[in-house]
Amino acid sequence: MQDPTPDSSFPNSIKRPFRLGIGGPVGSGKTMCVLRLCQWLKEEISLAVITNDIYTREDAEFLLRANVLPADRVRGVETGGCPHTAIRDDTSMNMAAVIDLETHYPDLKLILIESGGDNLSATFSPELVDAYIYVIDVAEGDKIPRKGGPAIRTSDLLLINKTELAPYVGADLEVMARDAAIQRGSRPFLFADLKSEKGKEDLMHWLKHEYLFI
């Protein structure tokens, strides 16, 4: 990883772009989280996206169809195997994409790196990202925070998505909040419904005030 260089005008006092990971199980809303962050931030800062899929560029294509960023600012990585490996163990493919983006866009301030669909044990290498959001959704059941796992416990932000579905799937948000607090201690968690943009203010406040300083 490129060594941090003090620069008071840059996020977290590092000169290179801030790298934010987005992880979570299949269908939890990772790509929607990336899409919303791009929509909400693209007028304020220069940013780019790297997506990870095992055998396709499906998530990258989704973002391109949504016209959320110019095509050259979206890179799709085909991991060819377990998605955990490409974000945690052997990050070389993602690092190559990071270097490519930094070379083409020297003004970049933020790179979003979306993991392929994973399970509760997936975490990002600290050499790849500076912080990461772990996305779960209420449709998986209100037991998910209680199950714990490294990502539930140690992600920089736990985002509990699709709250609008709670009445239809029998998920108790108070139970999820209680269990998330038990598992995470002082680490933050937020409720959101990214499709309807519910929770936007809380998510943007966390990202801007904790990391981007804008």
Structural summary, described in words:
It is a single chain. The protein has helices at 30-41, 58-65, 83-89, 92-104, 144-147, 150-154, 166-169, 173-184, 200-212, and strands spanning 18-23, 47-53, 74-78, 110-114, 131-137, 157-161, 189-191. The protein is α/β, with parallel strands linked by helices and 214 residues long. The chain has a 7-stranded parallel beta sheet, sandwiched between helices. Strand 2, helix 2 (58-65) and strand 3 (74-78) form a beta-alpha-beta unit. The chain starts with 17 loop residues before the first strand and ends with a helix. Mean pLDDT is 90; it is low at 1-13.
Strand and helix layout:
Elements: E1 18-23, H1 30-41, E2 47-53, H2 58-65, E3 74-78, H3 83-89, H4 92-104, E4 110-114, E5 131-137, H5 144-147, H6 150-154, E6 157-161, H7 166-169, H8 173-184, E7 189-191, H9 200-212
Parallel strand pairs: 1-4, 1-5, 2-3, 2-4, 5-6, 6-7
- How does the overall form come out from the CA principal axes? globular
What's the helical proportion of residues? 25-40%
Question: Going across the major beta sheet, what is the strand order?
Answer: 3-2-4-1-5-6-7
- Percentage of β-strand residues: 15-25%
Structural class: alpha/beta
End-to-end CA span: 24 Å
| Average pLDDT rating | 90
**Main beta sheet, described?**
7 strands, parallel
Run of helices and strands: EHEHEHHEEHHEHHEH
What Rg, in angstroms, do the CA atoms define?
16 Å
Supply the number of helical segments. Answer: 9
Low-pLDDT residue intervals, each spanning 5 or more residues: 1-13
- Quaternary state of this entry equals single chain
Total E-strand runs:
7
